């Protein structure tokens, strides 16, 4: 029984889960201490409110509706986390998920509001736009060895200002926000297929939620069960060894960044084509969704299935911050706790190595004790 427990703890998936849970607990604990420092009178109520999120509402109908809103925001975050982890598995750091998300939003909204296209064309446009932007970084990396972090950061800002300029053509006259899909082109809204009725007739709950889960499963299959996934991971481990084995490492790098970009672009479409938000054409900061995807990817142990749960958790506590008593704390307190958890995600590998070391020492002590017992029995005989 003890050996089975030890072997279970050595499983990489179990170690990633335990390390992620430890990050969450420590993040919430440190966040609670910060709340105590700011205002001890409402600290417990604030941390409980953040964790509860939609459970804050006494009405079952309201809880379902706001639970649906959390899921709506989880879908794009999941796609951004898949974008980051897919590239990371191939040895690339796609910090450009934010820019690919932006260009996906611009492409989907312009096709919807400016060209009057149906939702499936708008969704495809977002994927293609994100893939093209990602491929640019991939080409620079493959043929000129330009660090993908540098090229992605530059493209993030180029994408933001380009999309702002493009969507100015489809914005409301009296505000910096784009037209609403419901009044301009209802055919561009993602279909619900009855899912909204499950969340107290929440009109924003669409097929985006199950679709992103299916995409996460497909990414897991691609990386873990296919020849292409093996080649991509091999290229990430050592591109020179991959080249020696006959793998086309330049093609793999470009393909990886294109797929990662397409995932982030699709994430933007799942949010903006639901009608949940409008794009603000005067914003001067890249949306945080792409950067939060980095946290969700690492908190999920760089596993596509784990990213589903980590994305929901991060969005859950982010939404929960809106219900904190504003007379005592800022609404951004949930962002602070998210940031603490994100910071602690950097120690996931450290926790896993420490756990493995602890198990090794345990087994070594057990073997030593067993050898000593055997020697004593041999001496008595």
UniProtKB/TrEMBL annotation:
Keywords from the named record: Cell membrane, Membrane, Transmembrane, Transmembrane helix
Query: Do you know which InterPro entries this protein is assigned to?
Result: ABC_transp_permease
This chain belongs to the protein called ABC transporter permease
Where in or outside the cell is it found?
Cell membrane
- One Pfam annotation reads BPD_transp_2
Q: Which residues cross the membrane?
A: 17-38, 75-97, 117-137, 149-167, 204-223, 253-273, 336-359
Its GO CC terms? plasma membrane
Q: How does it sit in the membrane?
A: Multi-pass membrane protein
UniProt entry tagged with the keyword Cell membrane: yes
Q: Which organism is it from?
A: Candidatus Oscillibacter excrementigallinarum
- Which GO molecular function terms does the record list? transmembrane transporter activity
Q: What is the lineage of its organism?
A: Bacteria, Bacillati, Bacillota, Clostridia, Eubacteriales
Q: Where is this region: Disordered?
A: 362-381
């Amino acid at each position: 029984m003890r050996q089975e427990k030890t072997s279970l703890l050595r499983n990489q998936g179990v170690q990633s889960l335990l390390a992620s849970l430890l990050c969450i607990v420590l993040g919430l604990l440190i966040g609670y201490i910060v709340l105590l420092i700011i205002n001890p009178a409402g600290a417990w109520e604030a941390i409980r409110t953040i964790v509860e999120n939609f459970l804050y509402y006494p009405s079952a109908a309201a809880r379902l509706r706001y639970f649906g809103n959390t899921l709506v925001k989880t879908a794009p975050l999941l796609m951004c986390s898949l974008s980051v982890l897919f590239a990371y598995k191939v040895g690339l750091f796609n910090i450009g998920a934010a820019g690919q998300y932006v260009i996906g939003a611009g492409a989907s909204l312009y096709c919807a509001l400016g060209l009057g296209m149906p939702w499936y064309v708008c969704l495809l446009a977002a994927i293609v736009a994100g893939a093209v932007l990602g491929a640019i970084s991939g080409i620079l990396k493959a043929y000129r060895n330009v660090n993908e972090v540098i090229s992605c950061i530059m493209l993030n800002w180029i994408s933001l200002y380009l999309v702002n300029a493009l969507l100015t053509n489809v914005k409301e006259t009296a505000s910096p926000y784009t037209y609403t899909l419901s009044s301009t082109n209802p055919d561009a809204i993602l279909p619900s297929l009855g899912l909204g009725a499950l969340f107290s007739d929440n009109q924003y709950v669409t097929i985006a939620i199950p679709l992103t889960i299916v995409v996460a499963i497909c990414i897991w299959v691609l990386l873990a069960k296919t020849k292409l996934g093996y080649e991509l991971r091999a290229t990430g481990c050592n591109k020179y060894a991959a080249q020696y084995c006959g793998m086309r490492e330049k093609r793999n790098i470009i393909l990886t960044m294109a797929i990662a970009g397409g995932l982030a672009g699709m994430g933007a479409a799942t949010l903006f084509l639901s009608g949940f938000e409008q794009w603000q054409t005067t914003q001067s900061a890249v949306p945080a969704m792409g950067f939060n995807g980095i946290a969700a990817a690492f908190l999920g142990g760089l596993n596509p299935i784990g990213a589903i749960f980590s994305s929901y958790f991060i969005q859950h506590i982010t939404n929960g911050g809106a219900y904190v008593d504003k007379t005592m704390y800022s609404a951004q307190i949930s962002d602070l706790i998210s940031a603490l958890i994100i910071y602690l995600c950097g120690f996931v590998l450290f926790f896993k190595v420490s756990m493995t070391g602890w198990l090794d020492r345990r087994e070594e002590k057990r073997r030593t004790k067993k050898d000593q017992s055997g020697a004593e029995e041999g001496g008595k005989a």
